Amino acid sequence: MDITDGQAPAAIASLVKEKCGGVDIVVHNAGITRDKTLAGMPEHFWDLVINVNLAAEERINDALIAAEALRAGGRIVCVSSMSGVAGNFGQSNYATSKAGVIGMVDAFAPVLAKNEVTINAVAPGFIETAMTAAMPMIPREAGRRLNSLKQGGLPVDVAETIAFFANPASAGVTGNTVRVCGQNLIGA
Fold it and tell me: Is 94 among the catalytic positions?
C-alpha cells in the first residue's frame, strides 16, 4: 500500500483492528531519498521525501490511536538517521524529514505514555548495505572511517536496536533516539 495515500492510515488501522484485534509493535521503516542541494531541489522532491519519511508516520500513528488499534503496552519504533541529527550536504529534505522523526518521537512520548505505549527512534549512521556498496569508493571509505570504530555498521546492528525498543523489557524507555553509528564523528 502507498503509505502516502490519504486513505492509507485509516485502512491500516482498520485492517490490524479487524484481523488482529490491534497491534503491539509498529516499526516505521519506510524511507526514501531524493538528493539535491536546496537551491537545485524541485518542490516535488521536497514534498515526496517529507511525506514518505515523516508525514505518513504521523498520520498512521494518529489513525492507530483514533481507532484504538494500538494496544496498551505497545511499542512504536521509528527509523531516523544520523542525517537527522547532523544534516548532510545535498540532503536537506532527507535531513529535515529525519530530524522531524526525532521531534515526533519527543512530542508523542508523553501522549502515548497515558496508554503505556512507548515511542523511540533509531538513527543509523553509515550501514554496510547493497546501496552503500554501490557508492563511489572515496565517499564509501569516508563513511566507514568517520566514526570511532573506523568501520561501517551492519543491518543487524540496527535490527537489534529496534528489537530492544520492541521488547517488553524496554517499558521504561520512551522518547529516546539511539544513534547506531559507531560514534559518528560528524554531529557527535
Answer: yes
- The pTM assigned to this predicted structure is 0.86
Query: What are the cell numbers at 78?
Result: 521509528
Residue 145 clears pLDDT 90, i.e. is over it? no
CB 170 within 8 A of CB 164: yes
Q: What is the rounded CA–CA span in Å between residue 17 and residue 26?
A: 13
Q: Which of 12, 77, 81, 94 is the catalytic position?
A: 94
Torsions phi, psi for 124 (to 5 deg):
-70, 150
| Mean per-residue pLDDT, 47-63 | 96
